[in-house]
Each structure stands twice: as C-alpha cells, then as structure tokens.
Amino acid sequence: MTDKDNALFTTIRQPPNLRSGLADTLMAQIESGDLKPGQRLPTEQAIMAATGVSRTIVREALATLRAKGLITTHQGLGAFVSNDPNPRSFSIIPNDLRSIDEVLRVLELRIGVEYEAAGLAALRRTSEDIERMQDRLDALDKALEKGGYGAQEDYAFHRSILVATQNSYYSRLFDTFGDIMVPRQWARLDKMTGLERQRHAARMRREHHAIFGAIRDGNEAAARRAIRSHLSKSAARFEELRDATNPT
C-alpha cells in the first residue's frame, strides 16, 4: 500500500463499538470521494496496521459495507469501492445495532418520523385503521402478559400507525427498520425479577394505549405528545442501561 493509501486512514480511538467506528470511517471516505468508485481497498493487514484494530473488527466492518452495497469483493483480488457507491435505498441491518448507542440513534430517527406520523394518523385514520391498530395492540398486550418481548407485535402496532397516515412512504420507510429496531438482546428481560417484568409490561401497555387512544379520538396534539413521550422514555431506559453497563 502506498503512502497516499495510508493517508486515507487514521488510528481509531477505542470507541464502545470498534466495528462501527471503522465502518463509519470507511463510509465517510467513500461518501467524500477519498475512496473513489472502483478503487481497490487496502488489504486487511494494511487496514489493521493503519487503524490499530483487530482483523475481526476489519472483517466485520467490511461485511457491513458489503451489506450496504458500498463495496464489492472479488476472490483473490480483494475489496473494491462499488462503481455506484451512493446507496439507492436506506436500510438498517442487524450489524448496525450491536451497541446501545446505535439503538439510541435509531430511536432519535424514529422520534422524528413517528412524531409527525402520529399527528397525521390522528387526522386521517379511518375506521379500518382503528380496527387494525386495535388488533395489533391486543396482540402486543397478549405477548407482554405472557412475559414475552413482544418485539414483532410492537413493530406491527407502530407500523399500523404509519399506515394510518394514508401516506405509503411512511410505512415503506418503517419497513427498513423491521423488528430489529429494538434488538431483543438489549431488552434484558431475562435479567429482571418477576415484579420488574410485570412493571415493565404494565408501563409498555400504558404508553401504547395512550398513543392509540389519542389517534382513535382524532386528537392530533395528544397523539404527538404520546408517541414522543413513549419513544423518549424508551431512549431514557436504554441510556440508563448503557450507563449501568459502562459506569464512568
């Protein structure tokens, strides 16, 4: 690798998620044009030497870039920047959510999208939408009552809100999240006592019912407040978990 190639990399400080740090660095260099379409990436060994991270981290970062369509690999030749590296579609893949900080970033995005969607749903929902949301809410209640995570049911309920906006772009965007938007490994229900799980389930039911009630009643302002409160509280709970896991 030439000195010019070496200049593309800087040693990555030790962030909570090294893979994300390296992947973000490479993505930034591709998006800025420092790494050009068709350009061959340095070898794994060269990236390790330039960045100070392990081979495992390098391989996971490259796998993330491949999943996003930013690079291609050719056996025996190495990895190359895609000829058209600008992503045509947006997606969130499981590898993106390996740390609580990444989950929090997705929640920030969801707050922006769902805050507006909840308001529109309150104004535009039909009787069919209300019936669909009620059905999804009942399914979520049952999953929580059984002590489950309810990830798929939670996703289905929130998606039904976006469908009720009568703007298909909202639901199409939400489909890029899927039920990985809150990965099960971060819910930590298995670490809770029976009483804590009951309180968690009751809180989740209360927050979701408040959202549904406001949309059903056509109360735009209340719907926005309820969805923001729900997602903000979720973010606060993840922040507490992060801080408890990584005390300063």
Automatic annotation (TrEMBL):
Domain HTH gntR-type: 16-84
Cross-referenced PROSITE patterns: HTH_GNTR
Keyword match rRNA-binding: no
Keyword Chloroplast attributed: no
Pfam families linked: FCD, GntR
UniProt-listed InterPro entries: GntR_C, TF_FadR/GntR_C, Tscrpt_reg_HTH_GntR, WH-like_DNA-bd_sf, WH_DNA-bd_sf
One annotated GO molecular function: DNA binding
Origin superkingdom: Bacteria
Alphabetic keyword roster: DNA-binding, Transcription, Transcription regulation
Record protein name field: DNA-binding FadR family transcriptional regulator
